[in-house]
Each structure stands twice: as C-alpha cells, then as structure tokens.
C-alpha cells in the first residue's frame, strides 16, 4: 500500500482563502501597531492579497505572484531603501504568528516549524534587502519552502 502524498504547506494551511484571511487580519493588526504602522503606511488596499499570493507561491501553491507581480525580484524591490531593523522584523514575525493563532490556523509542530523557519529566513532577507546599497537580481528565483528546508547562506551574489 502506497502512503498518501505529503501535502504542500499551502494545502495544509487551507490554500489562498486561508492566506487571504491571515494577511487581511494581520495588516489590520499592523495598522494598530506603533512599531510597524509607519513601515506600512504607504500600503494600498490590495497589499494583503499580494502578500497572500506571495506566501502561497512560496509555500507550494500556484505561481500567481510570479505571473501577476513579477516574482521574487518584485518582492525584493518592495524592500529597497526601507531601512528595516531587527526590532521591526521580530515584531512582524511575532504579530504574524499571533494572527495565525487568533485565526486557528494549523498549529501542529511540523507545520509551525516549517512556517517559522520560512518567516525567519524570509524576514531576515527583507532586512538585508532594505539596507543602503542593496540591489535586485532580476533573475532571483522565487523561494520555495516545504516541510524541512535548509538554505545556504545569503551571499548577495
């Protein structure tokens, strides 16, 4: 008997509708957060849906973000010259995870380990890409995250 296939993280969390609920509620919290609200003051009403599409693609869902917004190079451009700090990065991760709990998203150890791993990795890249002198590699591949990813060091090359 063949075991059932392992679902993607995207499927496990409930797909794009779950991600849209998460990002919509998360950015409602961000708007009320003293540390993060100024960072996202420029954000348009469509920002939560864009982030949901990005996260969905990274976590194994359809390539919607790449098709509609330009993939990882576009996301990198959104962080250029934003001067993000570790305090803001940590708060962003903390608030996103708290929102996931609020919405009763999966909290099994395997899923949360994978999610936290991606959020830590991705948010640290966002800080790097927000500093003076950062540039965009127009060929940067879209990150893909699964149940046990380990990435090499970021070299900026």
Task: Indicate the topology.
Elements: H1 9-13, H2 15-31, H3 47-58, H4 64-69, H5 71-79, H6 86-102, H7 109-129
Helix pairs in contact: 2-3, 2-6, 6-7
Describe the structure.
This protein is an all-alpha fold and 157 residues long. The protein has one domain: Globins (Globin-like, Orthogonal Bundle), CATH 1.10.490.10. Helices cover 55% and strands 0% of the residues. It is built from seven helices and no strands. The chain has helices spanning 9-13, 15-31, 47-58, 64-69, 71-79, 86-102, 109-129. Helix 2 crosses helix 3 (47-58) and helix 2 (15-31) crosses helix 6 (86-102). The chain is globular and about 55 Å long. The mean pLDDT is 92. This is Group II truncated hemoglobin. Heme binds at residues 50, 74. Pfam families: Bac_globin. Keywords: Heme, Iron, Metal-binding, Transport.
Sheet bearing the most strands, described?
none
Rounded to an integer in angstroms, the radius of gyration calculated over CA atoms is 15 Å
Mean pLDDT over the full residue set:
92
Count, helices: 7
Distance N to C terminus: 46 Å
Number of domains: 1
Number of strands: 0
Which segments are poorly predicted (pLDDT under 50) over 5 or more consecutive residues?
A: none
The top-level CATH class is: Mainly Alpha
Going by CATH, the homologous superfamily would be Globins
Q: Predict the CATH topology.
A: Globin-like
Global outline: globular
Series of secondary-structure elements, N-terminal to C-terminal: HHHHHHH
């Amino acid at each position: 008997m063949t075991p059932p296939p392992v679902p993607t993280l995207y499927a496990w969390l409930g797909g794009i509708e779950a991600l849209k609920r998460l990002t919509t509620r998360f950015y409602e919290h961000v708007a009320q957060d003293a540390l993060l609200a100024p960072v996202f003051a420029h954000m348009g009403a469509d920002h939560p849906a864009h982030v949901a599409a990005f996260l969905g693609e990274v976590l194994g869902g359809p390539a919607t973000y790449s098709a509609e917004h330009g993939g990882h190079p576009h996301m990198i451009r959104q962080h250029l010259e934003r001067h993000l700090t570790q305090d803001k990065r940590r708060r962003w991760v903390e608030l996103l995870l708290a929102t996931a709990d609020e919405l009763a998203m999966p909290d099994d150890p395997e899923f949360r380990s994978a999610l936290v791993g991606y959020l830590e990795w991705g948010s640290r890249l966002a800080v790097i890409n927000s500093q003076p002198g950062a540039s965009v590699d127009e060929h940067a591949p879209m990150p893909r995250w699964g149940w046990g990813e380990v990435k090499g060091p970021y070299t900026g090359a």
